Amino acid sequence: MCSICKRRKAETKIKYSNLHLCPVCFRKLIEKRARETINKSEKLERTDKIKLLLHPTKKAQALLRLITPIEKRYYRQFPQQKIGQKIKVDFIFFTNLRKTDGLTQKKIFNEVKNFCLSEGLEINLHYKKKPVNRKSLRKKVMEVSEEITRGPKEKLMLPINLDDVITDFLYSAFTNSEEPFKTTLETLKMEKIIHPMLKIPDEEIEQYLKTLNIETGKELETDKLTQKIKDIINYLEKEKPGTKFLTLKTLQETFLNQEKGRNKGSNKD
Q1: Which pTM does this prediction carry?
Q2: For 103-155, what is each residue's pLDDT tens digit?
Q3: Residue 19 · residue 1 · CB < 8 Å
Q4: For residue 81, what are the domain limits?
Q5: Nearest to 12 by CA among 236, 242, 207, 244
Q6: Average pLDDT, stretch 193-221?
Q7: What is the domain-level CATH number for residue 245?
Q8: Which of 67, 192, 244, 257 is the most exposed place for a label (fewest CB within 10 A)?
Q9: Residue 179 and residue 187: Cα distance in Å, rounded?
Q10: Quick check: is 24 in a domain?
């Protein structure tokens, strides 16, 4: 039985909060978490124009379906503010993909395109060579981000989630380099960029898509180090549920403390 509605059959177990949820309540929970993340960021104003920057991943599919109903809800609530001038979707289409990755990308893009058509959303394509690792992926995302957010009231939403931030941090640590974690942190503090899925882990994104009857096949192939890091994170989460959220909280607190320290130092000067 579902822990929230107490009526429907539970199909999803959330270990870290000991909840058993039906598909409807699970979707509502994920959507609520995305709304709360947007509100707490205090970056989105009612008259802002929303742009979604997607690339061929499950997270991109989830972000599109999460944000569309949120935007519609705002439009119904504040029609006088001209909110809901349609969301604009930008899609990074990778070239020079191998056959398997090419088919995966084509399938994801077709699903995104069909959804945009059904909702009357404009979609623009940006052709880029496939990134070889996380560093180059972040670089390409930032390149396109700068291209499409030049207007004063344009806000960009990225499909970066809980697992991405932790993976970027560990990737930088294991390779003894600032990137890609430095770029991720920069996007977190940029006023023009919002991360609605920051507190949604990979496994919940996949389950969210399943409740919408969207097939979740293979992702594009990634570099071996990224995959190993993801395996480590998933192992730790399985052994101790809640590890991902605790790690994100620690990273955020450390980052904020560093910023406060810098600000104090500059004020003394």
Answers
A1: 0.87
A2: 999 999 999 999 999 988 899 999 999 888 888 888 889 899 998 888 888 89
A3: no
A4: 45-259
A5: 207
A6: 90
A7: 3.40.50.620
A8: 257
A9: 13
A10: no
Do 65 and 213 form a contact (C-beta atoms < 8 A)?
A: no
The values of phi and psi at residue 129, to 5°, are -70, 145
Tell me what pLDDT residue 85 has.
53
Identify whether 197 is part of a domain: yes
Look at residues 89, 104, 1 and name the one whose alpha carbon lies nearest to residue 52. 89
Residues 6+ apart with CB under 8 A from 231: none
Query: Which are the contacts of 129, defined by CB distance < 8 A and separation ≥ 6?
Result: 94, 95, 96
User: What total of structural domains would you count in the chain?
Assistant: 1
What is the C-alpha separation between 237 and 153, in angstroms, rounded? 39
Tens of pLDDT along 35-90? 999 988 888 887 788 899 999 999 999 999 999 887 776 655 554 444 445 689 99
C-alpha 163/C-alpha 203 separation (Å) is 10
| Residue 134, both tokens | 């996380």
Q: Count of residues for the chain?
A: 269
- Bridge partners of 125, per DSSP, are 91
Residue 53 belongs to some domain of the structure: yes
